[in-house]
Structure formats: structure tokens, C-alpha cells
Design goal:
Elements (H helix, E strand, L loop, with lengths): L3 H11 L5 H5 L13 H7 L15 E4 L5 E4 L1 H16 L6 E3 L4 H13 L25 E4 L3 H10 L5 E4 L2 E7 L14
Helix pairs in contact: 1-4
């Protein structure tokens, strides 16, 4: 079985790190057969304070196992791909329902849901963040199809790939860095 760091290396390689955003960041391709050092992985983490909102052209395309396409910043896309591949080894499918949205689209959705008074999830938490506080326009958030096996696996293993599920919105994960050490099998209904 591949180690999580090898999966990360494979994902980064497959996302063509010679492309302009990665090259500009000083990142270089990683050989998928080479074990990635913790030092290299630490270099790949983008400081959150350096993140801004992006256009679709600034982002990397991802695809889930159902062919749904989304867009994330390069590092988040690489880690999503590695996480998705690892989850599949455990029979878990991570299906995306939303990734990057433009600031304008996020704002329209926020205003719509706020104006209709239905911007609250069942738990009283706003279900649509203002675009200035949302990580979707930053290319650092995914929403997933909410099935119990996927959500359980993401709660247990997502943080190992830098993807942190939000407790108040179980379908929503945000990329914050901190790559994997060990993946845990999660079974049950």
C-alpha cells in the first residue's frame, strides 16, 4: 500500500508542478517513486495570510470518481487528489458537490439566502458564508455529498491530508495544510 506521502508526491506530479502557479511559488516536480520528506511537504503549505480570492484560471481542476469537476488552489487540489485516492483504498468515495466559486457568485448566493431568511442550517448556523469570510472564493473549500461513511472517513482522515471538516457544516471541508502521518480505516454505517 502506498504511504500518504507517496500519494501526495504522486498527486503533485500529476498536477504538473511546472505550471506557472507552482513555478512562481518555487515548487518543482516530485518523482512519484521518491519518498517525500517531511521538509518538502512543509514547504508546500501555503501560509493562509498569503491567500486571496482567485479566478478560475488561477486554479487547478480536480475531478471526483463520478466525473464532477471542481477547482482548487494547486496544493489543495494535490492533497484532495491524494486524499481521494487513499479513501478509495478503504472503499470510501468522496463526491464533490461544490468547490471554488467566484466572489461574485458567493456574494449573490449569500445575499439570496440572507434575504429569504433561509440562510440557516438546521442547527442555526448560517449555511452560506459572506464571500469575504468564505474559503470557496479562495479555492480552499469543498462541499461533499453527505453520506455517513464518507463523513466519518473525512472526520477521521481528512485532517491528515490538510482537509478539515467543519463541525457545524458536516458536508463542508476547508484546506488548512498539515499533511498525513497515518490513515485510519473507518467502517460502519
Amino acid at each position: 500500500m502506498k504511504t500518504a506521502l507517496t500519494l501526495i508526491a504522486s498527486a503533485l506530479t500529476s498536477l504538473a508542478l511546472n505550471a506557472s502557479p507552482a513555478a512562481a511559488a518555487g515548487l518543482h516536480p516530485v518523482d512519484a517513486e521518491t519518498e517525500v520528506s517531511e521538509h518538502l511537504v512543509e514547504r508546500l503549505i501555503v501560509p493562509i495570510e498569503e491567500i486571496h480570492t482567485y479566478t478560475k484560471n488561477d486554479l487547478t481542476e480536480i475531478t471526483d470518481d463520478q466525473g464532477r469537476i471542481g477547482y482548487l488552489v494547486l496544493e489543495a487540489a494535490a492533497m484532495f487528489t491524494a486524499m481521494q485516492e487513499e479513501a478509495a483504498l478503504y472503499g470510501v468515495s468522496i463526491r464533490i458537490t461544490s468547490t471554488w466559486r467566484s466572489w461574485e457568485l458567493q456574494n449573490r448566493a449569500y445575499e439570496h439566502w440572507s434575504a429569504t431568511g433561509s440562510n440557516l442550517a438546521g442547527n442555526g448556523v448560517p449555511s452560506m458564508a459572506h464571500p469575504d469570510t468564505s474559503n470557496h472564493p479562495k479555492g480552499l473549500a469543498i462541499d461533499v455529498a453527505a453520506n455517513s461513511n464518507t463523513l466519518r472517513w473525512l472526520r477521521t482522515n481528512g485532517p491528515l491530508f490538510g482537509w478539515w471538516p467543519i463541525t457545524s457544516e458536516e458536508w463542508h471541508c476547508e484546506y488548512r495544510g498539515a499533511p498525513a502521518k497515518k490513515v485510519v480505516s473507518v467502517t460502519g454505517g
